[in-house]
Write the structure tokens for this entry.
Amino acid sequence: MEKVKVGILGLGAISGIYLKNLTELFKEVEVEGIYDLIPEKMEAAKKEYGISKTYSSMEELLKDPAIEIVLNLTRPFEHYDTTKAALLAGKHVYSEKPLAATYEEGKELVRLAGEKGLLLGGAPDTFLGAGIQTCRKLIDDGFIGRPIGGCARMICHGHESWHPAPEFYYQYGGGPMMDMGPYYLTALVNMLGRVQGLTGITSKSFETRTVTSKPHYGQRVQVEVPTHVNGILQFEEGAVVTITTTFDVYYDNSACLEIYGTKGTLKVPDPNGFGGPVLLLRPEEGVFREIPLIFDYKENSRGLGVADMAKALRTGRGLRADVRQTLHVLEIMTAFEKSSQEGKLIMLESPYQREVAMQDEGITGILSL
């Protein structure tokens, strides 16, 4: 397969693993060029990863005819504008999460991509890893019977103690649901299908946060978004799942994702990662047993979704991290606050149907049809 050339917008903290995997692991893509507002970041990445091109502006990158896919790694509140600009320039786009800051913005991007016949998709791609894919197969093959419920929790006290630039986590487009919710919700819809409706209660426990990480130690950040979100998800197939995401709680173990069925319980690995462990409890044993991972991509494989988009672009097959998924997740995330404000059950409108599961690839770095 002829390699698909990718241009990267934004070189923040997450860009390093993308650059590493897209230049070393995935064989059917090639990073053509990069752009960031800070020239020093571009030069460092160009040298470390052997990138041939840097650009003087986003517009220059978007005008490059060699680039087919734009990988949007800008800050969350910038995703709408930058993705829209790339689509208008005729580029396919894979965006970091979330798709946009509001559901209305997300719908506009979907409409634009459809009008122009362009692929649009995005993160997270952790659901394509060995851990979640093994769980999906266990559920699909009936190991826990009919799914009836579940529980998801992401508990921490925010990012200001370790992240070098934590401000945007508390600004428009940020917060624990918009930041970490995509991992949990994407995993859930891939295992259980479409969410039909939900209720939510949100709150903001602290008006300001004090940064204790460098280089902004001591800086006070104004909190603009809910930082504690509780929700109940009603899935179309009948399962009811509770979810909590918070930046307000001190806790020693932030990740928990469990699926309950009529014949067993499944402990799903941290959806922010690609690997395991996967734990299954069946009533005949009464204890959790670790299940071997039966798919590839156990390590940090960010960029897997970009590689899958490249394969879809060349072959015409479906895109697994498609915008119908990222839009459905975006509607879920934004509906929690709407439910909290209006005090009622919110019925969702976005369509969603699971794409095909991952295949046993055979060769790491080259995706199957």
In short: The chain has two domains: 4-126+301-322, 129-291. Residues 129-291 form a domain with the Dihydrodipicolinate Reductase; domain 2 fold (CATH 3.30.360.10). The CA atoms of residues 7 and 351 lie 30 Å apart. The two ends are 11 Å apart (CA to CA).
